[in-house]
Amino acid sequence: MSQRNIQTQEALQQQQQVQVQALSAQQVIAVRLTEMSLEALQQRVENECLENPWLEKDPSADAVLPAEGSTEENMQDMMADYRSEEDVPDYLLRTQNGTPTAETVEYGDTLSFYDQLKAQMAEFDLSDHEKQVLEYLIGSLDDDGLLKKNLAQVADELEIYQAVNTSPAEVERLLHVLWQFDPAGVGARSLQECLLIQVRRDERNPMRKLLQQLLETEFDNFIHKRWDRIQRRMKLSDGQVERLQREVVKLNPRPGMALGERLSRSHQITPDFIVEADGYGNISMSLNQGNVPTLVISPDATEKLRQYEGKKLSSLSRAAQEDLRFTRSYVERGQMFINALAMRRESMIRTMQGIIRLQKNFFQEGDEAQLRPMKLEDVSKVSGVSISVVSRVCNSKYVQTPYGTFPLKWFFSGRAQQTDGDEVSARRVMAVLREQIEHEDKRQPLSDERLTQMLNEKGYQIARRTVAKYREQMGFPVARLRK
To answer: Alpha-carbon distance 272 to 408, whole Å?
Structure first.
């Protein structure tokens, strides 16, 4: 093989490697955009337009987005312009072991509270199942970074909404993994636990033992600022009390705030999808784009690059080389962002279409009992979207229907068995159970045993402990408390 052919082959391999890296970087951006709420996405697009001089809002309201399947081809065409790795912008090449790092694309955006915690999962050796449980735990935290749900409830929700079988013991084990994340205290179930986690991790603090004793044995006195009583009971000097007070104020009772961006938990939910039914069996769906504009690369940038076509980099002045690299870098960055937005849009639409296809009876009639058993894998199969992307879409998005606004994860449930062998969704069983409880004689509420018997008589093979679990999930207390 001639030297020229060898160089050509090496150049092709180099170009292919760059293309793979670029596509991976684009996928990272698309994943982040997919997880964002509509309000966060709008702000993200505004920030990107401010930071990229060659990215503009399309003045035409009817601008066409990249067609399905065209995103990868556009990226490959764009990358084909680079003759060597030297010409490729640095941010496309920053990878670790072939995988884009958090710094792969330097857009200056702040990751959400949820994103920053999920990114730390990579530091631990976790199975796919453990990652699912831990992700759900992260998604269950409140704005302050605390877990207000009990572990049994988290385990039940995982089984009902995510079709993930787990136990409170396993949830607790993974909660202890979450306690190793930064900032210290995130995932705590109470203020006391939150502060103790921070103290226990600060091994270099000479006041650590006294702080731990204070929080473990004198917490009630501490929160009521009874320092005289604390001093007597812990036998502290005035100096020790002063040092304790100085150390305590360094602890963060709201570790979620330390991550910068709070999870948006507004009481007013903005739906990501709008589904309508006309009463004749026809269902239509639209993606709520809000105020997110269509973006394009500035024609000025395109014209500038055209002026450099056919010219060797070495033949240009240093200033011209810098100008070319700068323009290419930001054009590339802008095109990658545009394509990532298109990927987000396509993934969300296909995921929602898959849910509608599987839950068509509900969207036509609004009857909760018509919901069929459904898992992430089911939606992935009918939509052609990967399970991981389906999970991200369904974990944080809402749909507005004629019957109310629902989180997408509401449509997922496990399977229950009927006496005739047919499978029904756990949601359907819960709907029947709710009806029984709501129409019971309040002077003689139905026990879990009686409810189980009635469901069995209706053809649902279900155990008493499952009835109790569903009852608690729906917020109904035991029979003696329903009088």
So the answer is: 10
